[in-house]
Design brief:
With 196 residues, the protein is of the alpha/beta class. It has 6 helices and 7 strands; from the N terminus they run αβββαβαβαβαβα. It has a single domain, classed as HUPs (Rossmann fold). The strands form 2 sheets. A 5-stranded parallel beta sheet has the order 5-4-1-6-7, with helices on both faces. It has a two-stranded antiparallel ribbon with strand order 2-3.
């Protein structure tokens, strides 16, 4: 049992590391920015790095819109998504090209909200923007929500610049990935059973 758990954890870490190095930018329906902390209406350095990367992808012409995600934390008066929108509009993105999805306080909830918004508009191709360590789990969440997703990690995140902090996030992903694997595997089966 312990050997199996250790093997799964090791495989998860390897996949996180491999996918973290891949940039799959290409033409899509939307660029999706996963939320991170904001402080009194200002993006944290981590969120700012994600927004700057999305801004770069938008200016390269990869998508006509950016979807910003992230809800409100305890004591907050505004959401991460709203702060993200303000940042992007301030930096020249037309307000009509920025979509706010502020329902989620987790990766799973944010991806579900994004998928529902896109499905209502018959859109499904996205570039997911977050920190490198986050990319593999995002692909699994995209699989769960039936999105055609490509990942493009930030290139200058404060987390990546801090080896100790990056290792903490990396090791944490090793525990989160198996759960995401199960969710991604079960979701298609659940969808199939509902259609019967």
């Amino acid at each position: 049992m312990l050997l199996t758990a250790a093997t799964v954890y090791t495989v998860a870490l390897v996949m996180v590391l491999v996918v973290s190095q891949q940039d799959q930018r290409r033409p899509v329906d939307a660029i999706v920015v996963l939320g991170a902390a904001q402080y009194n209406g200002r993006p944290s350095p981590v969120l700012r790095a994600r927004l700057n990367h999305a801004l770069h992808l938008y200016r390269e012409g990869h998508a006509p819109r950016i979807i910003v995600t992230g809800g409100m934390g305890r004591g907050d008066t505004t959401s991460e998504a709203t702060v993200g929108r303000q940042f992007l509009v301030t930096h020249g993105v037309p307000s009509r090209a920025v979509v706010v999805q502020a329902q989620g306080r987790s990766t799973q909830a944010s991806m579900t909200a994004v998928a529902e918004w896109l499905e209502q508009r018959r859109l499904h191709r996205v570039i997911l923007v977050s920190d490198p360590f986050h990319m593999f789990r995002l692909r699994l969440e995209a699989q769960r929500t039936n999105l055609e997703a490509y990942t493009s990690p930030t290139e200058d995140s404060p987390i990546s610049d801090n080896p100790v902090l990056e290792l903490r996030y990396l090791f944490a992903e090793g525990f989160k990935i198996p759960v995401a694997w199960v969710r991604a595997a079960i979701s298609p089966l659940t969808s199939h059973s509902r259609s019967l």
